Every structure is written in C-alpha cells, then in structure tokens.
Hints:
Blueprint: H1 2-7, E1 17-22, H2 26-43, E2 47-51, H3 52-59, E3 71-76, E4 81-86, E5 93-97, H4 103-113, H5 120-128, H6 151-162, H7 169-194, E6 199-203, H8 210-223, E7 226-228, H9 239-252
Parallel strand pairs: 1-2, 3-6, 6-7
Antiparallel strand pairs: 3-4, 4-5
Amino acid sequence: DRAMKSAQAKPDDLRAIAVTRGPGLIGSLLVGLNAATGIGTAWDRPVIGINHLRGHLRSADLEEKRVEFPATILLVSGGHTILAHMEDPGSIRILGSTRDDSVGEAYDKVARMLDLGYPGGPAVDRLAKEGRAVIDLPRPMIRDGLDFSFSGLKSAVGRKVEKAEAFEVADMAASFVASCMDVLLAKCRRALEQVPARSLVVVGGVAASPQLREGALGLTQEVGVGLCLPPLKWSTDNAAMIALAGWDYVALGQAPEPIAQPRLSIEQF
C-alpha cells in the first residue's frame, strides 16, 4: 500500500506483479509468493516468478542503463559468491562460485567473532577503515582458477580470536577485508583475462562495501573496461530490482510461474 501511494499508482496502472520464486529458504519464499498471488488475484493481474539472483543483475540498471555487453559479473552476497559471463542480456554462464562459505557469510561470521553485531558486513567495513591490514591472514585459492573459498579465512580469524592473541579489533577487521578484496579482485582480473568483456558488473549486498567499490574501480581502470555498480541503496536486497526483472518478462511476453524454487541457479530464467 505504501509503495503504491509513493508511486501515485493504481492497480489499473500495473501490468503484472513480480515476486521472488528462488533461490532462498522455502518458508520465506512461500510467504512472498502467497502474498503476491493474493494481490494478483485481487487486482486481476498476472504474477511473475523472478529469479532473485537475476534481480541482483538488474540492480545495476536501476538508475542509469550502463551495462555494456559482453560483461563479467561478480555477484557477492550473504548467500552467494558467483563469477559469471553474460554475452548479451539473455545469456549467462557461470565461470566460478564458492565451494563453501559465501563472502557475505564470512563477513557476518567474522563480525560475530569480533562482537560487532548483525548485519556484519557494514560493521566490519566501517571498523576496517580505522585499522591497518597488518595481521597475516590467508588468501584462499587466490592463485587457483575462478572458484572461491572463504571458510579457511573465516577459520583463521576464529583461531586467532580463540587463542586470545593480542591484536587491535580494527586491525583484524582491516586484515580480513583486505584478504577478501584481494581474492575477489584477483578472480575478477583472471576472468577478464580469460573471457574478454567490455564491462565488469558488481552486484549483491557486498557490492555496498566501499573497499570493493574502490578496488573494482581501480581494476577496471587498469584493464580498460567499464564498471557497473548499483547505487548503494540498490545494492542490498530490494523490491525495485525484482520489479525491473519482472518488466523484462512483460516486454518479452513471458511469465515464469510463481512457484517456489529454493535451489534456483543464476543460469535459470
């Protein structure tokens, strides 16, 4: 109701209702799907099931259409760490993904270890700005392929905390963030070398990280490709990106069914 009032829109102005169908926890998906289906029935509008990860991809275009294809995609969030290649808006191919924890999950777990609260990402990034990256931490799989692994990095921080080693919390945050950024940017560089692209698109909740945004800008300037980042307010989960992904289907005359798919892949429309 608030969204409709803010947009000064009426049900008759809508072409469809877009809702996340996956991936995610089945309970959360069903809550959203049931609500959207009810609204669609009440307003006599079709309900389109959206791949949440595809929604993140569209977040880079919410304010200004800037994605140039072919594009290398880095999707980094609490649930996913994926490198992919898009030859055009309708195709996507996974180049690499995490073998264990996502980078966002590692952020949240390290934040708990350091008593920084939840959500951990913003707290870790803020504290990292006050510290120095002087603590020796691993860069897992930095020299190997395009897959990721953040479990070992998280465990390395945990061991230092458990042993009560003397360190400044801000320095630990800075060292952890530096390790994450080194790995993410090294993989992006390798992907751009292996699969030529005109732009690097960084999306997902971790795309709000100032350190990642700064590092991605430096990398793209160095290798000579464009950089597409969603505005900060559209980096984390939001309904606008799902709506934009839904509009793509309206334009194509398609409507994926609003059925929960907890393990939906980014490669699936």
